[in-house]
């Protein structure tokens, strides 16, 4: 079961990394897309459920809660880690200029969003100043973002494990 989950994670990580490479080469601004981020999260959730269902099938239709959660967590964690590491290397060592460009694009989008929601000018200025001073591609920021996304996906994984577990009848 763990081998199957590991394979799903490696395949997902490779696929997401390839997607990021393609987007980077075609139009790097797509990497800032909120919609793309949601689609990737949804894909990782589906991957977790598929991996759990596969583990259940491998185990003859039975899984403990721990086995179900493990089958969900492993591919999601690996599938998220590989492209996260790729983007860290890309934006810190290969092409920091694009990282700065994407940061400025993101700040402009945030400013537009805040203005559209009628945020006070002082609040907008403070938020923009904070964003300018933050290095969103530092190792700390990257690991924090990875951890928060993984925690969110793990909560969904707990729900998946609850729905997919099935004990053997004595």
Structural class: mainly alpha
Fraction in beta strands: under 5%
What is the global morphology?
Answer: elongated
Total E-strand runs: 0
Report the C-alpha radius of gyration, rounded.
Answer: 19 Å
Structure description:
The chain is mostly helical and 170 residues long. The chain has one domain. The protein is 83% helix and 0% strand. It is built from six helices and no strands. Helix 2 packs across helix 6, helix 3 runs antiparallel to helix 6 and helix 4 runs antiparallel to helix 5. 22% of the residues are buried. The mean pLDDT is 95. Keywords: Membrane, Transmembrane, Transmembrane helix. It comes from Dokdonia pacifica. This is DUF4199 domain-containing protein. It holds the Pfam family DUF4199.
Based on the model shown, name its key terms:
single chain; mainly alpha; 6 helices; 83% helix; 0% strand; elongated; transmembrane; DUF4199; DUF4199 domain-containing protein; transmembrane helix; membrane
Summary of the model, kept short:
The protein is mainly alpha-helical and 170 residues long.
Helices and strands, with pairings:
Elements: H1 2-27, H2 34-58, H3 65-94, H4 96-116, H5 121-133, H6 139-164
């Amino acid at each position: 079961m763990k081998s199957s989950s590991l394979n799903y994670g490696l395949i997902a990580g490779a696929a997401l990394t390839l997607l990021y490479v393609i987007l980077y080469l075609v139009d790097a601004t797509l990497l800032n897309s909120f919609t793309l981020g949601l689609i990737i999260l949804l894909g990782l959730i589906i991957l977790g459920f598929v991996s759990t269902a596969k583990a259940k099938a491998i185990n003859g239709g039975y899984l403990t809660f721990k086995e179900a959660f493990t089958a969900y967590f492993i591919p999601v964690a690996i599938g998220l880690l590989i492209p996260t590491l790729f983007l860290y290397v890309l934006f810190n060592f290969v092409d920091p200029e694009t990282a700065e460009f994407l940061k400025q694009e993101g700040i402009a989008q945030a400013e537009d969003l805040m203005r559209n929601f009628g945020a006070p000018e002082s609040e907008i200025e403070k938020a923009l100043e904070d964003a300018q001073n933050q290095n969103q591609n530092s190792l700390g920021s990257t690991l924090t973002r990875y951890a928060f996304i993984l925690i969110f996906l793990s909560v969904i994984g707990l729900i998946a494990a609850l729905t997919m577990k099935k004990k053997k009848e004595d």
